[in-house]
Amino acid sequence: MQQQTKPKKSRAQSAYDNLWASPALFVFVSGVVFIVASRRGGDEGDRLAEKAWLVYFAGWAPLILMALWCLIVRRKPDIPAAPIGLFLAVAGGLFHLLLRHESLPF
């Protein structure tokens, strides 16, 4: 009996697959920074909270860039990673907004 091996993914395909889910990392890091900011308090905590928002908003860049790439090359988004990444970005933003709305940078 001969085993069938899956063909190895190219680096571009691996990057494409992983970029859709990358907002999870940004949401997690911004959450950690929010926790540190709440423990520090005062002006330093406020500055850290603003930086946490910037980290969160940076997490939207991979989603937007991958969506534009899919439009340019007329390729369907990766399923299920694209909806999961979008859901995590939106849910993380709403969660942070409920807890730290006063520290929005704008």
What brief labels describe this structure?
single chain, 106 residues, mainly alpha, 5 helices, 74% helix
Description:
The structure is a single chain. With 106 residues, the protein is mostly helical. The mean pLDDT is 86. The chain has one domain. The chain has helices at residues 11-19, 23-40, 42-58, 60-73, 81-100. Helix 2 (23-40) runs antiparallel to helix 3 (42-58). The radius of gyration is 18 Å and the shape is elongated. It is built from five helices and no strands. The chain starts with 10 loop residues before the first helix and ends in a 6-residue tail after the last helix.
Give the helix/strand layout.
Layout: H1 11-19, H2 23-40, H3 42-58, H4 60-73, H5 81-100
Helix pairs in contact: 2-3, 2-5
Q: What oligomerization state is this entry in?
A: single chain
Instruction: Please indicate the count of domains.
Output: 1
Helix content: over 70%
Total beta-strand segments:
0
